[in-house]
Amino acid sequence: SGGLLVAVRPEAEEEFLEIGRRHGLELASLGELGEPNREHLVRVVD
């Protein structure tokens, strides 16, 4: 219950995930921000 969505620059992703691991957090990257698109608010990519 209750998650936290955090935006991190691609070049800082590994460092951010490592900091989380050191604090006992199970973090995962789940996507990326893209250019605004009037056609779709959210795009799911496998």
What brief labels describe this structure?
1 helix, 46 residues, mainly alpha
Concise synopsis of the structure shown:
The chain contains one helix and no strands. It has 46 residues and is mostly helical. The radius of gyration is 13 Å and the shape is elongated.
Notes on the structure:
Helices cover 22% and strands 0% of the residues. The protein has one helix at residues 13-22. The protein is mostly helical and 46 residues long. It starts with 12 loop residues before the first helix and ends in a 24-residue tail after the last helix. The model has no long low-confidence stretch (mean pLDDT 87).
Task: Please trace the helix and strand order, writing H or E for each element.
Answer: H
In whole angstroms, the N-to-C terminal distance is 24 Å
Principal-axes shape call: elongated
Number of helices: 1
Q: Beta fraction of the residues? A: under 5%
Which structural class do the helices and strands define?
Answer: mainly alpha
| Low-pLDDT residue intervals, each spanning 5 or more residues | none
Write down the Rg.
Answer: 13 Å
Number of domains: 1
Q: How many strand segments?
A: 0
Helix content: 10-25%
Q: Mind summarizing the main beta sheet?
A: none
- The average pLDDT value, as a whole number, equals 87
